[in-house]
Amino acid sequence: MATWVYTITYPLRKARSFFASARNRKTHS
């Protein structure tokens, strides 16, 4: 199991969801 893949992709996934929610919030308001 490549741990570095999880280490790299997890923060990216978290940041992507954060930006997505921020974009949705901006669109709704």
Describe the SSE topology:
Layout: H1 3-28
Task: Summarize this structure as a short list of keywords or feature phrases.
29 residues, mainly alpha, 90% helix
Quick overview of this protein structure:
The protein has 29 residues and is mostly helical.
What does this structure look like?
With 29 residues, the protein is mainly α. It has one helix and no strands. It is rod-shaped and about 45 Å long. The protein starts with a helix and ends with a helix. The model has no long low-confidence stretch (mean pLDDT 90).
Q: Any low-confidence stretches, pLDDT <50, length ≥5?
A: none
Q: Taking all residues together, what is the mean pLDDT?
A: 90
Task: Describe the main β-sheet briefly.
Answer: none
What is the N-to-C order of secondary-structure elements (H for helix, E for strand)?
Answer: H
| Share in β-strands | under 5%
What is the number of E strands?
A: 0
Separation of termini?
43 Å
Instruction: State the share of residues found in helices, binned by percent.
Output: over 70%
Structural class: mainly alpha
Number of helices: 1
Overall form = rod-shaped
